[in-house]
User: Fold this.
Amino acid sequence: MIKMFRHQRVALSRMRVYDGYALFMEQGTSKTYPALCRILDLLKSGSIEDALIVGTKTCLGAWERDLAFFDPADQDLLKEKISLINYDKVWRKDKASPYYKKWGAIILDESHNIKNRTTNRAKFLLRIGCEAKYHYILTGTPIGNGSLEDIYSQFCFLDPYMDRGNIYSNIFKREWEERSEDPEIKFKGSYREFLDRYCLLDMYYNPCSYKRVAELQDIVDKYSYRVKKIECLDLPDKLPDELYHLDLIPKAKPYYKELVTYNTIESLEILAENPLVLRTKLRQLASGYFTDNDGKIHEVGSEKIKALEEFLDGYDDKLVIFAQYTHSIDAISKLLIKRKVKFVTLDGRQKDKNIWKKFQEDDKIRIIVCQYESANAGIDLYASSTILYFEPTDRSMTLEQSRDRIHRTGQKKPCSYIHFITKGTVEVAIYKALSNYQDFNEKLFTEYMDFYQRKYDTTRR
Assistant:
């Protein structure tokens, strides 16, 4: 086991006190490790026999990563007793779902994914939560855009109960009754009571303003631990890389295998005539598309845009995104426009090379989308403390220079670096080289090709 930072030790101690508790910890403060330690405590003490961890596809990789920090025996116990599943799959088939059972403990990572209590995922998780003994939620953004009603479903999950088919919150029921001036008044802990107590509704019965905010904050503070990177004085100024391992989607797999094995996609009359062209097309495929010999773009789909959308659901601060290809930048831009997020881009097509200053100075501009060649040197982006690498560069110096765009004089927070890596593709080999401060050169690409082809030949036999 590794030595925990002070804020991680505090988080674990709080989880040991409460059977239902929230860790509202900002991106990069490593909330998964203390949560795993709590599950290990419960397993070893015999308090639970199993645990369910639900998260977005992207964040589940962090749980698999942190398992490696435990001693072999503890690691085996955790792997045997923990079930990891994403929000999209956990509720499928409803009561026929293999996850519809009584769990010892349930943890919801990125718990803002159940903020809408009427969704199928929220209904399912609240229902199985009624049977579990221990409940924990983790997120850096429990409330989006100041919508206080987002907290109800998440706090309901911490201690839910069912009455005549309806699910209510024991926490709010208990806290409201303790605060009531009339001991004869009883509460259910319902969402309707929450709205009546804290929200002013518009003509469409949607919350438009709030009241008794101090009381609500007091209740939330009692059952949660809030951590921001800027408050963690023991964190290093550059945090370790966070890897989000994404799957190559089924439609792309046969194209990738054919291209890496035969240097061609026969059905589309595509030929990679040399190693440089082949490497480029493989890297494009890892991001969901490729160009043919006439320059036409073929879309095959990727988990990267969906993963970015999931990430943005739980992220409210300024963000720097680096991408290699203009097509990827266009796909990212399309998503941000759909989400009505104000952003700027800096790539080879951008005439205003000082547009990064708008990102620095304008609080309304939340994201800058950069191409490595245009933004990896000579500019300041310390208005953000996080870089998301949508796809990797193949040059070590370029990566290190890009890291320093946010790690500069004027930065007040530890810096986070998040990498989207498509499993089973050349991106894995590229990141391995970069992590060893090497360029992904022709020699390493040849080694990758030899390894992949031997593996494919063995599998085919």
Notes: Residues 236-461 form a domain with the Rossmann fold fold (CATH 3.40.50.300). The first strand starts at residue 20 and ends at 25.
